Every structure is written in structure tokens, then in C-alpha cells.
Amino acid sequence: MRAFCTVLFCVLLVACGDKKEKDNTIYLPASNGNLNTISIVADNNVWDGEVGEEIRNIFAAPVNGLPTEEPLFNMKQIPTQVFDGFAARSRIVLKIEKGNVESTTKIVNNPFAKPQTVAVVGGKTNQDIIRELEENKDKIIDAFNKEEVNEKLRRIKLSPLTDKNIEEKLGISMSIPSVYNIAKSDEDFFWLRKNLSNTKTIDLMLYTVPMETISKGDSAIVDIVKMRNDITKTKIPGEDGIYMEVEDAYAPSMFETIIDNKPAYEVRGMWVMNGFTMAGPFITYTIEDKINNRYIVADGYVYAPSLEKRDYIFELEAMIKSVKIK
């Protein structure tokens, strides 16, 4: 009898997988995975066919605003039958369910690990699944991006920059890694830099402008580009009249978003150095601070020739999305 109970206990333990229960509370294992890497759970014949092609077209599409093509996400396929245990702990997962199921798209938080975002897309046929992917791609990408931004900020908070000057002078707080140095500061402007090598850097500018500086609507992008060019020319000029400006030949893109529960514009594009051969991508956020009749401007840019730049721009994006206006 004792041997039977021992065997039964082991079977139940295995059946529970990685989840542990105590007092009706489920304790999940920690998620894993590289940033911006999706685990695609799909049968091989689905992944190798038209559904897999659609997934690659959506989630490996080139990131907007980079000088060379880099995918929005890296992807690794996991056959459905081996999606268990450690394989099920990936932080962001796209699970494809094909068969006798209704067409559906669901976003589920922390089903197998924590933190974790799983998008489940199902349909009876390939065309059903492709239609679900097309109709819900923006929602899925947004959910995955939010999960990865939170993960990046969690890592930043392990070793944050503790300088309080930004908070005291600009009235904002944000998560910045300790590897960034303040290269320049005054009452309303901060320039921070992270050295990747002797010549390659990730840079972040923080400043404020009056509310009337930026128009509402589609014309806002013209005002933001002009504002950025004025700041880079006057606040961080180079030697012999050299200065940074937005690349005219590469039209920047603008999106509306929300940061700290406040309306914001996001602009992505390319910068060049007027008078010198240097260039790279930038990302600018203007966050509405209506109470103080101003915009908080957080502008990041990268100079890293010969290196892939997606993850550097993503680091800046995560930092900027942590802004809290005091």
C-alpha cells in the first residue's frame, strides 16, 4: 500500500508539470528567452506552409527607421508535441492551433511561466488562421512589445543610474542603466551617452519645449523635425560647424502613442552629420504635459556602423517608455 501511494504521488507530481500549488495559489516558474524572440508553437507542416510564411511576413518584417533591414522579432519554431517543460517557459509565444476549432485569437498572460504573454491563434483551415493573423497582428505585436519592454526595464532596474539631477530639473523620473554617463546638463537639457566602443555610442537627449512648439495632427512631424534639428545644432554642436540633422532623403515616420497615461508622438527616422560622414537611426518621443504647458522630449539615437541596431533602439524605446512626470 505504501509503495502504491508513493507511485501515485510521483505520477501526480509529474502531471502538475512546472506549476506548484499551495493554499490554492499557483506558483509559476520564471520565463526565459532572449529579448524580442518569439517561440512559434506550430506543427512542422503548418510552419513550412503558407501559415508559416504569413507568420514570417508579419513578425519578421523590417523594423521601421533602421538603415538596414532587421526583423521586428527573431523567431524559433517549436513543434506542438514538444511544447512542454522548459520549452513552454518562453516569455513571448505565438501558438497556432489548427483543426476542429473556431477561428479565434486570444492573448493570455502567464499560462505556463511568469512573466509571459501567449497569443493563441486558431482556425479550421490555413485561410482561417491567416485571416486571424492579419486581423489581429497589431494587437499581438503590441502585446509582445509591452512584455519585452517590461522585461528590459526589469533588467535595467537591477543596476540603475542613481543621479537625481534629471528628476530635480526636468520633473520626470525614468529607468536608465548605470552604464550611461551624463555628458552634458543644464537647467532644461540633458545629454546621456553609453559607449559601445571607442567610437560607437548610444545617446539620449532629454529636454522640454513649450506646448505651442508642436502642432496637433499630421503637421506635428514637421514641427518635431524642426525642433530636433534646432536642438542638435545648438546643444551638441561638433567642431568646425559640424552638426547633426534629420536625413531629408529618408522620410521619418510618426505614430501616436501613450506614455505615463499621456498623449505622445513617436517619430522614427535617420540622422546624418552635416559636414561629416556619420549617420544612424533615431527615435523621438514628445510627451504631452498639459498641466505644465509643455512637452517632455526624450530623443535617442545610435551611432554604431557595421553593427545591427535594432536592440540598441529598443533599449532607448524601453527607457523612454518608463518616463513618469512628477
Can you offer a commentary on this structure?
- The structure is a single chain.
- The chain is an alpha+beta fold and 326 residues long.
- It has helices at residues 2-15, 44-47, 50-59, 126-156, 165-170, 220-235, 310-321; strands at 20-22, 25-27, 37-41, 74-78, 92-98, 104-109, 117-123, 172-173, 181-185, 189-195, 201-210, 243-246, 253-259, 262-274, 279-289, 294-303, 324-325.
- The protein has 2 domains: 15-156, Chitobiase, domain 2 (2-Layer Sandwich); 165-325, Protein Transport Mog1p, Chain A, CATH 3.40.1000.
- Strands 9, 10, 11, 12, 13, 14, 15 and 16 form an 8-stranded antiparallel sheet that branches. Strands 4-3-5-7-6 form a 5-stranded mixed sheet.
- A hairpin with a 2-residue loop joins strand 1 and strand 2 (25-27).
- The protein is elongated.
- Residues 1-17 have low confidence and may be disordered.
Kindly summarize this structure in a few lines:
It is built from seven helices and 17 strands. The protein is an alpha+beta fold and 326 residues long.
Descriptive terms for the model:
Chitobiase, domain 2; 2 domains; 7 helices; Protein Transport Mog1p, Chain A; alpha+beta; 33% strand; 8-stranded antiparallel β-sheet; 326 residues; 5-stranded mixed β-sheet
**Form type:** elongated
Radius of gyration: 23 Å
CATH architecture type of the largest domain: 3-Layer(aba) Sandwich
According to CATH, the fold-level topology of the largest domain is Protein Transport Mog1p, Chain A
- Contiguous uncertain segments of 5+ residues: 1-17
Mean of residue pLDDT? 92
Number of domains: 2
Amount of helix? 25-40%
- What is the string of helix and strand elements? HEEEHHEEEEHHEEEEHEEEEEHE
Question: How many strand segments?
Answer: 17
Strand content: 25-35%
Distance between the termini: 66 Å
The CATH homologous superfamily name of the largest domain equals Mog1/PsbP, alpha/beta/alpha sandwich
Report the total helices.
7
